[in-house]
Each structure stands twice: as structure tokens, then as C-alpha cells.
What we know:
The chain contains 14 helices and 13 strands. By secondary structure, the chain is of the alpha/beta class. The chain has two domains: about 5-105, Oxidized Rhodanese, domain 1 (3-Layer(aba) Sandwich), CATH 3.40.250; about 135-355, Rossmann fold.
Amino acid sequence: xxxxxxxxxxxxxxxxxxxxxxxxxxxxxxxxxxxxxxxxxxxxxxxxxxxxxxxxxxxxxxxxxxxxxxxxxxxxxxxxxxxxxxxxxxxxxxxxxxxxxxxxxxxxxxxxxxxxxxxxxxxxxxxxxxxxxxxxxxxxxxxxxxxxxxxxxxxxxxxxxxxxxxxxxxxxxxxxxxxxxxxxxxxxxxxxxxxxxxxxxxxxxxxxxxxxxxxxxxxxxxxxxxxxxxxxxxxxxxxxxxxxxxxxxxxxxxxxxxxxxxxxxxxxxxxxxxxxxxxxxxxxxxxxxxxxxxxxxxxxxxxxxxxxxxxxxxxxxxxxxxxxxxxxxxxxxxxxxxxxxxxxxxxxxxxxxxxx
Length: 356
Ligand SMILES: [Zn+2]
């Protein structure tokens, strides 16, 4: 059929039942694909088509992400005599959007492929990274201004297990910076209500709610068996109790704090760098003023909490460089982010030489 159209819709392609389907997407081998599609690079296919196709008369379907590259490859194949080559219009996006069947490579369900599609497409972030998130257990201490974006983004990204620790109730004055809560949630326990939010956002996540104020007597028990601890508390004493437990347990601590229009961000991993107490010693002025006294710009908590969530995802998936050994200083008034080096303090009372 010499006049076969160059492009074909997803529905037409499905009913045409092509004997040969070539998927030229970069991640074709590790993402859901049209059943029986064969992953191949555009270069391989166009430079030596006879390696893949027995006859120039064989009907072929060429598939890419959105139908652009497949149209080019189709033209190249046609100019080489493969006149039955056809491009899938709209690519896999079009195929997936109307719910046509997909074959999944091992590891993720088709639903998970759809849910996490945009992060799976990132360079360096494949099925392995998604599975690493799914297998991770993260404790989030404080479900307030920082905890809200941390929980929302970690749940959305597919972190498999989240433990939410907070002993407070939702107050109406929280709502300007804690958008996981609704007006009708005022008076409810934060840990439980935040857990309900997480479950509604992503049923893949196993979520635990603990209405608990951490101190030196209970922090180790509460934080053991996690891969990462995220501290989102505005209490200096609580932060130190969490840090001491993190050092004891050998678990990285992702730290954030806010003050009016400024924020701080760091990853403390005492196995390879400073701990929280190396930078903020226990005998320093601990009278950190809470948001209820000094005020805070809501979006600042969103910025810093989102950065904390980003650091957690990076640590779990081993993408990029972690912030370990650096203290990030954010200022919303000038829209600047500075980063200063922080070092292990040999005299640190928690992780230093004299600590035990
Ligand atoms: Zn230390």
C-alpha cells in the first residue's frame, strides 16, 4: 500500500495490529510500552533497518514520546524504501492518555507508571530511583509550616513509609502557612489529620501518625527503623533531642528552620560530616523564637520545606549532591540563597571525640 498515511492515531494503530512496532524513546526499555513494542534507538533503526526489518513491505509502527521524532524516523525509513512505516501520532502520551493497553517492565504497576511519569522521565531517575523511594521509611518530626510541604511532596513522590510525629492540634493561625489543613480541621490532632491528607494524596504510602512530643527519653524509640529523619520543629530542645537520636542511630537528618522571612536548610549526617549540634551547640542560646512570637511569611515555610523534601528525595535516590556539610541560608526579602560550609566539631558534645 504505497499511499499509506505517514501518521496514524492511537486508536487506529491499536486496531491495525502492526506486526512490528519500534519504540524509539530513550527510556523505552524501562517504562511502560505498547505490548510487543521493541525498544530501539532512532539511530540504530535508521542506520541499519535491515537488521530489524525483514521486508520493505512489512507494516511498521514507529513510536516516540509525542510523535515528533517518530515522524522524522518514519520519513527516513520511507526514503530508504520502507513505505509501510507509519508514525504514531501523539506518541506514547497520546496512547497512554486514552487508556490503551501497556506492558510494564518489572517493578512498578501501570498505575504507578502513570502517577510518577514526570519524575521517571528525569535524567538519572528511572525505575530504580522510584523503587528506592517506595522502599524508604522517613520520619517527619513536626507537621507544621515546614512539615506540611515536606509531607505533601514526599507522599506525592511515592516515599513508601512516612511516620508523622507531632503532638499539637491544628489552630486557625496555622492555616496561612500549612495548606495541608483545611478550616474544618481546626481543633483536630495534626499527626492524624496530616496522615489522612497523605493517604488521600497517595494510597501507595504507608503512613503512621504519632501524637508525641519528642525528648531525650523517647526520641530513639520513635525514630529507630527509619532511613531518614526530617526535622521540622521550631523547638531548639526538640531539635537537639532529635539530633542526638539521629547520631546514635546513624541516620541522616534533614534540617530546616524559618524565621520571619528567612530560612535555613542542611543535611546533617554525623557519619560523614557535622551533626546539628556541631553547628548549633547545645549550650548556645536556645531561646529560638517561635513563629507565634516573631511571625513568619507563609511561602517561606513552603520554600524551605520543599527544599527539605528535595534533599530527602536526592538522598534516597542518590541523585545529585546532598547538602551535607553546607548550611543554606535563604532570604525571601532579597530572593537570595547563600550556602556556607559547616564542619564537624571535634569537641561536639553529641558526635565529637568526647561524646562517649
Ligand atoms: Zn556534632
